[in-house]
Amino acid sequence: MIETYQAQLDLLCEVFNVEKPNLIIWNRNHSAYSSLTNTINMRTRISPFQLTLEDSLLHEFAHYLTRRISGNEYQFDYFTGRRRRQVSPHGKEFFNNLLKVIAVWHDNIDKYSWSGEYKRIQQYAKPFRNQNAT
Ligand SMILES: [Zn+2]
């Protein structure tokens, strides 16, 4: 599994001409990108209600790209000593990057497992998708 993910990630980094983030497989049922450690954490469990594992990596890679393009998603708040979120994690900027990643990887964006995406992202994607697609 790690080899498959790493190969996919290497290819994406090459196409988008970016350094490689860290990659970890973890024992949780969701994937995530941490900008603090610059690590993509991937799940291995397959669920019909979630993105495919391949698409899950595309989603997390889009978070990584968004962080690289717009700087840190988090900024340290000196008054509270806490991190503040600067960019909506699933906002328009993230979506635009996700769309680019999907278009490069799948050629046709309708091949992405959209039904496993957050509703908000599905809404953003509607104008870009084939009208007949589900
Ligand atoms: Zn996300």
Structure report:
Helices cover 41% and strands 14% of the residues. It is of the alpha+beta class and 134 residues long. The protein has a single domain, classed as Metalloproteases ("zincins"), catalytic domain (Zincin-like, 2-Layer Sandwich), CATH 3.30.2010.10. A 3-stranded mixed beta sheet has the order 1-3-2, with helices on one face. It has a two-stranded antiparallel sheet with strand order 4-5. Strand 2 and strand 3 form a beta hairpin. The chain binds zinc ion.
Bound molecules: zinc ion
Number of strands: 5
- SSE series: HEEEHEEHH
Q: How far apart, in Å, are the first and last alpha carbons?
A: 29 Å
Strand order of the largest sheet: 1-3-2
The helix tally amounts to: 4
Unreliable spans: none
